[in-house]
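Appendix B. Chain record.
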Amino acid sequence: MGTVNATIAGRQFRLACEDGQEQHLEALAHDIDQRIIDLRKRFGEIGDTRLTVMAALMVADEMNEMTRRMRRLEDEIAALKDARVVAADRAKAASDAVVGAFNSAAERLEGITRKLNQTLPAGHGVGIG
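Structure tokens predicted for this chain:
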């Protein structure tokens, strides 16, 4: 288990974390400390507890907004996946219709060719193929 010594609001904290997560924890502690410093600049010395609570509320608000945004994006992704399935189905139907039209046209042409061949003298027929 890893440990990190972090300074938050002018106080030292020894924090435990999973091995390999030390840098991440240091960055998080620095972020909280910077928020408190910024709040102290804006509001003055209103007490460490209040500053810490305000910083925690800011983090919670950002997390809440990111959660809402993530849910909206997940809904958009689901809608796009559904639209992709519908588009693929429509493309398949269109492709099938085109193939059907070509086959029908080919059959008609073959029929016309057969009729022409029946009306022409022997040896003067129209070739198919």
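Further analysis of this model is presented in Appendix C.
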